[in-house]
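Exam revision sheet. Question 4 asks you to relate a sequence to its structure. Input first:
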Amino acid sequence: MNIELPCSGTTLPTKAEFVQVYNDILMIPSKLKAYSVANPDLDAEVQKQIDDAIKQIEDFAELQSSILSPYWQNGQIRNWQKEANDAWSELIDEFHIYIPAKILELISKVIPIGFTVTIMGIDVDLLKILEKEEQESVKKQITDEVDKYYALVPKGYQYYNGEFGVECDEWKGKLTWAYFKNELIKWCTNTLQAAFGALIDAFKTIWDALGLPSLPTLLEFDVETFIRGQIDTFKQQAEDYANGILAEIEQLTVDAENLVGDARKEIDDKIAKLQKDFEEFSVNGYVIDELQKVELFGMSLLDIIGGDIETNVLCPEDQINELVRAARDWFAQWQKELIFMWIKKIKSFLDAIGLGAILDFLVLTFCDVLELIGIPTSFELTLPELPEIDVTVSV
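Answer key, structure tokens:
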């Protein structure tokens, strides 16, 4: 079977559509293992088919981690679905760095542009950061001193520190690298704006004669404070709700002490229902549900990701971080898109000063860039034929 990635052609690709293709495949081993446990008397030949299929998917995951390196990073404790999610998050970041970098490289042939940028105390060359060796070097620098660099991430973006149940240095390192790349995207956008301002000044006579729209002013919005405020509100609401249930149970228990018969049974039933409600209620789950609905300039955080990603490995802290990252990354990417939309309106100016080739980069899709950086957009996979188990792939 040839599986092709969902290349929609949008300039703001969403992660869910790509991650789901991989998750559908990477969930198969757990489904097969659960089937084996539920059916201990399976025929030996059927069990062999299941074992072979599990091995095939494991081999597929290892192959993909090699093909998608350095974006796919093997965890100390293997969680293929998280590894795939992180890889596609990184590749989308790469897309939003690649095109601005190429445009700036073209502009640098006309006016001087410095490509060295310092982020979190680390000096990088924008044109080299797209290379595997350079990325691995910066990642290693971060992971070798994860506490140092994690501390430089704004508080509102710090997760995996135990607040929602998980403390993990490895994931802190990945979070820090993700923040680092987001800062690179912001640097690219700001440098693009400055570079076009310099171009306009350098060719002012041509610019004035064409009567084109002015360089856009980038939006100012404190995503960190906004999103953390939302989380704190939802967390407090959830804790108040849970504490309210406990208080009601306590009061009903006192009320029931002197009751008998039907009156006592009625109170006991209420207490039992409240206890069940309390046991089933999750503060983290409530925060996630409400956070998904939060809108940023008309788009919910769930829509920014691209919808629910089906997975059989759920970690609330990871889910919250994913939504926070979606808000932060989308805003930075949208700022860049504002510049790109403006660039499309000044084609006559770019043609006049010999930079018309810039427009060629603005028609590149996510999958175009994947191919340019050597990432395949399709792969062959033979899935097992086991009629009682769903092993379909969303493509």
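Marking note for examiners. The chain has a mean pLDDT of 90.
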